[in-house]
Fold this protein.
Amino acid sequence: MIKQEDINTLRNKKIETQSLFIGNKQIPAQSEETIEVTSPIDGKFLTTIANANENDVDIAVTTARKSFESGSWSKAAPQERKKILNKFAELIEKNTIELAVLGVRDNGTEINMAIMAEPSSAAGCIRYYAETIDKMYGEIAPTSENILGLIHREPIGVIGAIIPWNFPLMIASWKFAPALSAGNSVVIKPAESASLSLLRIAELAAEAGIPDGVFNVITGDGEITGKALAMHMDVDVIAFTGSGVVGRKILEYSARSNLKRVYLELGGKSPNIVFADTQDIDKAVTQSLGGIFRNSGQVCVAGSRLIIEEAIADEFTDKLINESKKLIVGDPLDITSNIGAIASQDQLTKNLSYVKSAMAEGALLKSGGKQINQELGGFYMEPTVFSNINSDMQIAQEEVFGPVLSILTCKDEAEAVKIANATVYGLAAAVWTADLSKAHRMVRSIRAGVVHVNCYGGADLTVPLGGVKQSGNGHDRSLHAIEKYTDLKTAWISL
């Protein structure tokens, strides 16, 4: 159970200037440059992090390559790697409150969600992939009796992971946990505005016994540090979650360097479709609210387009708006807050600009739309709901990444599918209906990597997460994620 007093003891703890974490130790950046970190809770200076340059990145990658080639991890016995990863997860769980509060001070996620989605989720992910280590078998090909065809699965080498600011521990673990389970070494580059919790768990990785150079964290500006990692000739894979603009650059960097494999999760404009035959309207309202407003809408799979069948549109909209007004937007380190802060002033400004553009295009502002809690000094925004939306509007096409919901209506199933697919994205979706046949038809018809039925969210590590269209490629989570971090090698043996 979360106790407010435990959170308060860590709320104002001084955070020293952060170095890079390379080779199981903190080292200063050769650049000697730093980036100031501002807390979105109160808009005040929090700490500074190192701003790594190309030389710093090269040191990290070279260290990771040396560790990989040494075999200290890549050739370690499966049971040994499993034991260490489970110890790593145990240490994260032991430091759950510290890690959660540290992350919230950095990016503003409400503490109740942060504990569940960050350290708890990361520990669970590490345990999940630890259990795969001694259960991933090679194959024997069906050949003639004088041939033995073996298919080996091998680690690739050095994995670069570039992580966004909204859920740094969770999303990073989706990448480094399967990479480590397969025997790779990793270099993680967090977002400039959410590096602190990943730097801390790097220390825990070393404490757990992960060998020198296997788990490295470098911080810095995306245009410098991130580019250098993506361009490095000795990085074998880049796994990225973030914007489509940056994703395109990473593909370009791969082409300009060593043709490293690139896996991209680029967000979405996810449709949440509610049909008139939905059995539990109240549940649909509650989960639709969570689907867009948790973490202030800063969620890749956020249900930012609510598509309601006309017969229930007015009733559903009224209920949703009434419930949205009950949500408490406030200090994310207060356990009574339902919604925390926007991660930065830049993101808040972007969110408010979408409100203005939507109104200029004729959308009807039903609730919210303003900055609030300015007396706290941080970055807060009301849950915002628009109706009178059509698919051509900017707010129905572009990912806002904020607490802004667009409501559209449909006449029937066919129109719902048309509206749902009318964006360049295809990450997630949801369908609410009592008709099982309709649900299956919708799952097949909607172009998205994940389609929820009679729920929004909740898919766990047992199933993959990945997008289609401009939401990216490759999959995080599930056993399929390991495919990104392993090579298949054929041994064709004449007997």
